[in-house]
## 1
Amino acid sequence: MKVGEIMTRDLTSVEKDIPVKELIFILDSAKMSNMPVVDEEGKLIAFISEKDIIKAALPGYFEMLHSTSFIPDMNQFAKKLGQIADDPVERHMHPDVICVEVDDDDLQAADLIIRKNLKSLPVIDAERRLVGVVKRIDLLHHLL
Amino acid sequence: MIVTVTPNPSVDEVYWVDRLKIGKETQEEYLTRATDSDISAGGKGINISIFLARMGLENIAMGFVGGYTGHVVVRALRDEGVTTNFVWTGSGETRINLTVLEHGREHIPILIDGPGVAVAEAEMNRFMRCYRRMLKVADWVVLAGSLPPQVNLAFYYELAKLAKQAGVKVAVSAGASCLTHCLPAAPNIVKPDTREHLSFEWMKLRTKEEIINAGKRIVQDGVEIMIVSHEVTGDIVITRDNIWEINARVQTTQFRNLVGADDALLGGVIYQIHNGAGIEQALRFGLAAGILSAESREKVCGDKGKIEHEMANITLKRI
């Protein structure tokens, strides 16, 4: 089966100059944990996740400990988050985005999602325009 | 690609009742038990998107959604195979529109539409950027339905103007104020929503003559096709070269749910024109889709074969 047949047909995305606080609002409202970043043509240029935002707010702890139990207190986390709230998404996004094409096999999407431990994978057309996302749940639903 | 814009979507709740009890005194009976009910994603553009998807035509639905009911709308569209591209608002829930249909009087529905949620400036800016991106893949945009509270009445005009500048065709289906404001952008197709008002600022649309006079003036200003529902089973269509009266040979007693029927009509016309059909074929298909939608429990009929068969019951007369 092709990726286009199992993907979620959703184009929710952001442009690279929007502030982090706006991204957090969209992630929360749309109940997403990560977001494709597109240019003015709608072409996929990067990817950003809630994990990237946490990492940006608490770089040292994240790198060293991989555990939020070592955050001294939530006030400090909130303060750090406030400091990056107006940063453009561009500052924290991943330009080396992992994605699949709409005509790729579902197996290829499954392989990437499982191997790279991804929650979702952007889907692009031949011109690199975003056309949807494959979520882990899409795969599970499709396979059952 | 067809892009629909529904600025003020809804969750549509429909209740069928034997008789609606409306108490005037506290001691009167006032609880009505429905015999049947339905819940679906709604709003004119969304109905058109669902209709087009059921015809097998890929399309993208845009607009503003919020809260739990916003998720209901988005999920329903994706389940129909429509691509979603909505802007999330922080000011509340997507509205609920309520329809009550009394058995035997389904052609005269009781409609209560919610006002919708306000759109913040940042959300509007996000939508406009998103809309400009979508114009790069669109060949048609459909601007349909009411506007959320406090959104400028020139909103559709701005969207139509941008689309026309990008070489994208435009259809507008809306009520009095925003449709009138949009006309200077010369959309390709306009369909006034006459459910609330039978007049549109300078336009009166009560009689056949008034509709024709308004239509002639509108097409003179650059609109290609104006479609006006004149009777429940018929429309008047005005183009630069022709005026048609289009009717269906059906009884209104056959109607089950009128909500969405007008949107199926416009969706049918756009579907046919998009596929290269002539105007007469498009109008026959559109009205057949509208009639079958009105006759079904569901808001829009998705059976293309049945629609094509129903076209034999549609008469088209040049005036």
Note: Chain A is about 40% helix and 20% strand.
## 2
Amino acid sequence: MTDEPRDGADVSRRTLLRLALLGGGGLALSACGWDGGPLQPALRGMSRVNDWVGEKVLLSGSRLARQYPVSERTPENAFPQYSRTRPISSLALDDPAAWALEVGGLVGNPLRLTRPMLEAMPRITYTVKHHCVEGWSAIGTWTGVPLSVVADMAQPTPQARFLRFDSLDGSYYNGWDLKSAYHPQTILAYAFNGRPLTVGRGAPLRLYAPIKLGYKMTKFLTAMTFTAERPGGYWEDKGYPWLGGI
Amino acid sequence: MSADKAADETAAPPPGDAAPQAAPPEPAPPEEAPPEEAPGAAEPEAAAPETAPPKAFSADDDEPTAATQGPRPAVRRHHGIVRLTHWLNAVLLVGMITSGLQIYGAFRHFGIRGEPYLPNPADGYTFPEWARLGGWLAGGLNWHFALGWLFVFTGLLYVGFLVASGEWRQLVFRPRDVPLAWKMQLYYLRLRKEHPPQGKHNALQKAAYTGAVALGALSMATGFAIYKPVQLGWLTWLFGGYELARYWHFLAVWAFVAFVVVHVVMVFLVDPASLRAILTGWYRGRFPSHD
């Protein structure tokens, strides 16, 4: 076509100018690691909407996460263990007899459960996929007491709408909706891959559930408190999604 | 012009296409369409005599812009909904990709822990700060999950409009477009002199625009599959599991980037008038056929 040379001329001048303008606009639009600035409250608000959708629309109280054969487990050294706090040495870890889980808040029957008491209670074991908020996944076997068993013993009052889980060091904590907490696969875990929890995995007791992201599963668990107000959480208060449901 | 184009002309105009718009710069005159061949011809453009290209093209081919021809007739090309969703999408796509690259930075591999990672040229790569939105993982997630809904609603609005208006007929790439697309490709590669006849869009454009919509649908579906791999486990399973769904989600990004680059380059190289059309709705360029 004979118009090609003209188009070529266009490219060299006007079109290039337009492209440059567009590129400038693109640069102005580009993200530059921006955290949202004044839009952050709106983003947090939208995150709460997503929490609502996640809990009220998408979350089933009975749908079970897929279980895997033990042969598909991730090698333990390839299964990361993250903790915000590293209680390498503490009274509770040095002397397990000194550790106990306090179950309280809006309950009719507050409990203080030692590790032997928990191990004597009904237990379940499953091999499931762990999802980290970072995007990685790994398969492991967890054993523990269904949280609903402990909750039924404590008899939460009708005002109880949330659960707060506190970690040994007092700084890490998580808030949970009761629908997730009563899910049949939500457990207070004391064993990983058939052996007692190591400190790295959250000994002596940790929260576990394959329906939530890893940061929702409090390690070094010391207290479980029923509340009427929605508790935040260590990462949640910093901006991570509160529900963390998957 | 092929049979389907002729059929399209009988279709009712998009609802509201004429009414709600601001007064046009000038009334749209009768279309100056390229000569039509008999509908139903197997290879319509083959019948066109090589020496007499369609009028709409020859006028432009021989003469620089408006120098001797006077202003081209303006045709009404894009409905307001199409323009709105196009530009919303342009902004949202930038936001979704940049917040997605921020999220990617938290785990820069594909595949389950303890097993070899899937092939990925960006394995272990941290994207530069200018290409990331959110500042840190939580910020990226919050942007991604907020804009994601707008992305979905924009896509649904656009596709809903295409269906309701019947305009999908001019956009959907169908098997019969394959030979036309091939000829169009030959033309772009300068291996063919004749510009194949086309309607509102040529066959390669149809392929690109159909592909872009499919890409949006794939991004949405794989996005939900990795957002709720337990509650939407059936969807995650459909894509081969969580790790593969995340992989497809990431590959869709690069398909989108490739689309956008080609899309923008073609606007300026082939049909600059289309930029004005997607802004104002009025088209006054080389391909005025408006089937």
Note: Chain B touches chain A through 55 residues (CB under 8 Å).
